[in-house]
């Protein structure tokens, strides 16, 4: 059996996940501090002061910025890092199954599995127990080579 991931890969994936989540947390803490500053400044202003609109505009601009940053950053980078970590963790702790069967068909493709780019090898395998064919897929990391297949 070819093993693509080692324990070090899981540790590296956890470091990547942590490094991508920390800037998002820092951005939200900065936004919370800014909101507290705006609220304190707003409460200390006299009634119907013209500076209220400046504070409201600053809050609106910072809110739009933080929403766009969080949507883009969390929607792409953090999500992919977390999915990659979960994939590596599942492969590290999951079952290691070896199977020998009658190979009917073979195909390979590039696709995204749970937000992680992988190469897939699809096999049509005949099951004598159930007397039918079924598809079996092997997911391989995008940057690794296909294993040698004996046909």
Explain the layout of strands and helices.
Elements: H1 7-44, H2 51-93, E1 102-113, E2 116-127, E3 132-141
Antiparallel strand pairs: 1-2, 2-3
Description:
The chain is α+β, with helices and mostly antiparallel strands. Helices cover 54% and strands 23% of the residues. It has two helices and three strands, in the order H-H-E-E-E. The protein has helices at residues 7-44, 51-93; strands at residues 102-113, 116-127, 132-141. The protein has a three-stranded antiparallel β-sheet with strand order 1-2-3. The longest helix has 43 residues, at 51-93. It is elongated and about 85 Å long. The two termini are 16 Å apart.
Question: Which strand order spans the largest sheet, edge to edge or round the barrel?
Answer: 1-2-3
What percentage of amino acids are in beta strands? 15-25%
Q: Give the overall shape, derived from the CA principal axes.
A: elongated
Low-confidence stretches: none
The H-and-E topology, N to C, reads as HHEEE
Rounded Rg: 25 Å
Biggest sheet record: 3 strands, antiparallel
Short structural description:
With 151 residues, the chain is of the alpha+beta class. Helix content is 54%, strand content 23%. α1 (7-44) packs antiparallel against α2.
